[in-house]
């Protein structure tokens, strides 16, 4: 059952009021009634069941009947991806959130075909939120600002992740073949690939390269593939 985002929910909450978009979806799409139960999600590990006590014109009042703090994944991972044409990067955010990614680091590379607009990251954040509600992921991933490659690499490291380049140049080295001393952030390039100067930057920072498929994958497929491989591993 899809959950409803309730950031103010705590383990000690007895009653919760849903307003705005969540209230609109409940009242106009789900057409709930008094006495019905729904699942609540605070995006920080708490899932709860709420029973609808009262429905008003602007909100829904719920009584919390049960709540649980769910432990975060033992092995966190992040995805850094170049902005893609036709907004295929939105699929990366959606599907990798469903697979449990904890952070996203959008970046602009030399061969990126689009640049971030004012609402690019806001849209990524909305997509991530919709994804955790749909799959009952209790942890809402962070979406960092879109940065140029060099600055993105610095941000990845500052947040405690180990950058790992997903590349067709190393068909002999897979994720299972390397030792991870920190939570990985997988780097996914643009449709046109990385420029030679960018490979030089990766080498300068001693960023390991791995393959993720015996075939050439689209960028969005590559991100989903490495996320699934990491979860399985």
Rg, rounded, reads 20 Å
* Overall mean confidence score, pLDDT: 92
Q: Alpha-carbon distance between the termini?
A: 27 Å
- Give the uncertain stretches in residue-range form: none
Give the overall shape, derived from the CA principal axes.
elongated
CATH homologous superfamily descriptor of the largest domain: SPOUT methyltransferase, trefoil knot domain
Share of helical residues: 25-40%
Characterize the biggest β-sheet. 7 strands, parallel
Q: How many domains, in number, for the residues? A: 2
Number of helices: 6
Describe the oligomeric state of these chains in a short phrase. single chain
Proportion of beta-strand residues? 25-35%
Which CATH C-level class of the largest domain is it? Answer: Alpha Beta
Structural class by secondary-structure content: alpha/beta
- CATH architecture level-2 label of the largest domain: 3-Layer(aba) Sandwich
Number of strands: 12
Order of secondary-structure elements = EEHEEEEHEHEEHEEHEH
CATH topology (fold) name of the largest domain: Alpha/beta knot
Summarize the structure.
It is built from six helices and twelve strands.
Task: Give an overview of the whole structure.
By secondary structure, the protein is of the alpha/beta class. The chain has two domains: 3-69, Hypothetical PUA domain-like, domain 1 (Ribosomal Protein L25, Chain P), CATH 2.40.240.20; 78-232, SPOUT methyltransferase, trefoil knot domain (Alpha/beta knot). The chain contains six helices and twelve strands. The strands form two sheets. Strands 6, 7, 8, 9, 10, 11 and 12 form a seven-stranded parallel sheet that branches. A five-stranded mixed sheet has the order 1-3-4-5-2. Helix 2 (89-98) runs parallel beside helix 3 (120-135) and helix 2 packs parallel to helix 6. The radius of gyration is 20 Å and the shape is elongated. It starts with a strand and ends with a helix.
């Amino acid at each position: 059952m899809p959950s409803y985002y309730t950031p103010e929910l705590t383990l000690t909450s007895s009653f919760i009021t849903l307003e705005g978009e969540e209230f609109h979806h409940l009242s106009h799409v789900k057409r709930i009634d008094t006495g019905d139960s729904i699942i609540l999600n605070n995006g920080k590990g708490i899932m709860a069941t709420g029973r609808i006590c009262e429905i008003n014109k602007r909100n829904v009042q719920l009584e919390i009947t049960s709540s649980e703090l769910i432990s975060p994944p033992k092995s966190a991972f992040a995805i850094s991806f170049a902005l893609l044409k036709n907004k295929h990067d939105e699929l990366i955010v959606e599907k990798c959130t469903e697979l449990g990614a904890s952070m996203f680091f959008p970046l602009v590379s030399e061969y990126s075909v689009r640049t971030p607009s004012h609402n690019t990251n806001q849209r990524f954040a909305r997509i991530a939120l919709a994804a955790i509600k749909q799959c009952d992921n209790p942890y809402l991933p962070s979406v960092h600002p879109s940065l140029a490659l060099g600055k993105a690499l610095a941000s990845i490291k500052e947040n405690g992740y180990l950058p790992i380049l997903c590349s067709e140049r190393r068909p002999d080295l897979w994720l299972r073949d390397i030792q991870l001393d920190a939570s990985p952030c997988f780097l996914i390039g643009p449709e046109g690939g990385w420029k030679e100067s960018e490979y030089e930057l990766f080498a300068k920072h001693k960023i390991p390269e791995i393959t993720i498929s015996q075939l050439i994958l689209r960028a969005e497929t590559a991100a989903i593939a490495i996320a699934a491989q990491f979860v399985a591993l």
